[in-house]
Amino acid sequence: MDYLSTIVLLAVSTALINNMVFHFFVGNCPFIGVSRRVDTAFGMGAAVTFVTTIASLLSWAMTYYVMAPGAKLTAWIAGLVGYQGTADLSILSYVVYIFAIAWAVQLVEMYVRKYFPPLYKAFGVFLPLITTNCVILFVCLEIMKHVGLGAPDPWGLDKALIYAFFAGAGFLIAIVIMAGIREELDLCDVPKPLQGPGITLIIAGILSLSFMGFTGVDASLAKIMHPKRAEPPPAAAAVSDETARPGATSP
Amino acid sequence: MSSEPTGPGPLDRFTGGILRENPIFRQILGICPSLAVTNTMEGAVTMAGAVLFVLVCSNVMISLIRHLLKPHLRILVFTLVIAAFVTVADRILAAFLYDMSKQLGPYIPLIIVNCIIIARCEICAAKQGVWTAVTDAVGQSLGFALSIAAIASIREILGFGTWFGQWFGWRVIPVAPPAVWSPWVVMILPPGAFVTLGLLMGAINHLVARSRKAAA
């Protein structure tokens, strides 16, 4: 029960409260570029979710066994050559993550081209550009923060995969909502300078305001699932909420 | 030199990056950092500096190896070069500007997937010489810096009432009574970022359209 509630809280706080687009601002290029029609947007969101999950699997394994401070494989090799102290390869992590992401994107591209040719056409240039989608790298970096010696709240593979999947799902929710609004917007009379990206960004602002309403849902959920315990379990709800919002505590 | 496909000259690239092809307002690239780090001027300036460093270095590098690039592998090469330089920038910031490095958090490594840099490698550095690539990189970075400084100024002044509040502590809107102004908290939260950028983009489109009409 405790495990289940941690997972549910992690999922809800990732997909809704700390939504990738509306809270962390990552994945904005496809969010603005591919949100013209609902079906394309859904395909894009699904592809991003899939790639994120695969890439997080790879990057978790690489981080846990090779790159984190004190990782097992590296420590073993370091021991073979007689190196004393903690082996730390985390300086390589950005390059390795980009490799993992590029590999996963290539996989998805080949799969979609073979089995869903119309979807492949609809994506156009945006499919290879998933490589440069911030959501995926952001998820990998978030996983890196939670693996290795001295990580405040160590994640196993299960938590990393659930985080990645629901981060993608949050992106999917955001881009589908946006595409639905923009389909209706075609019938509206938008002032000429604001047409296109301008009005999309303003709508995104209003949507992000409404997503702020989810703040605190995790605490209430925790209360429902643990009626006896007064305080909410701190681990899942606090997933990098403070650290990743720059300047939240300025003068 | 003569066999190469010619593009705009160095000076053209430089000024184009600031005005005509401004990365944020005209090409709509690099939206993520322009929203995420612009609630204070310090964040915006640090981010612009990091982007300048990475863009100049990777443009030079790509321009030097442009004859070795294979078409189907070039995006991967671009990303790996950029990732290497971003690692350098990240370590430098962590060493000398630890507070800013903490504050910007994951957005420094996210420069790797910033579309501006890949787009400049693809459009300019992979086709033209080193000198043109450098001016292009500097021009684009200045355009980027000016854009995010504009957004950050609006957001910090309206949200905190300060300008460079953490570094220099300049107050723009006095706090002394009579209190005629209360800070707009929403401007430093995510919605303020989206709305500010949207409205600025609209304003710039309007100005461009008007100057075009005046010229015609």
Q: Characteristics of this structure?
A:
heterodimer; A: 251 residues; mainly alpha; 12 helices; 66% helix; 0% strand; globular; disordered C terminus; B: 216 residues; 2 strands
Structural description of this entry:
The complex is a heterodimer of chains A (251) and B (216). Chain A has 251 residues and is an all-alpha fold. Helices cover 66% and strands 0% of the residues of chain A. Chain A is built from twelve helices and no strands. In chain A, helix 8 packs antiparallel against helix 9 (157-185). With 216 residues, chain B is an all-alpha fold. In chain B, a hairpin with a 6-residue loop joins strand 1 and strand 2 (170-171). The longest helix of chain B has 31 residues, at 130-160. Chain B is globular. At the A-B interface, helix 2, helix 3, helix 6, helix 8 and helix 10 of A face helix 2, helix 4, helix 5 and helix 9 of B.
* Shape designation of chain A: globular
Task: Report the portion of residues of chain B in β strands.
Answer: under 5%
Give the H and E element order of chain A.
HHHHHHHHHHHH
**Most residues in contact, chain pair and counts:** A-B, 49 and 58 residues
Detail the poorly predicted runs of chain A: 236-251
What strand order characterises the main sheet of chain B? 1-2
DSSP summary, beta strand count of chain A: 0
**Rg calc of chain A:** 20 Å
Averaged pLDDT of chain A? 81
**Which blocks of ≥5 consecutive residues of chain B have pLDDT under 50?**
none
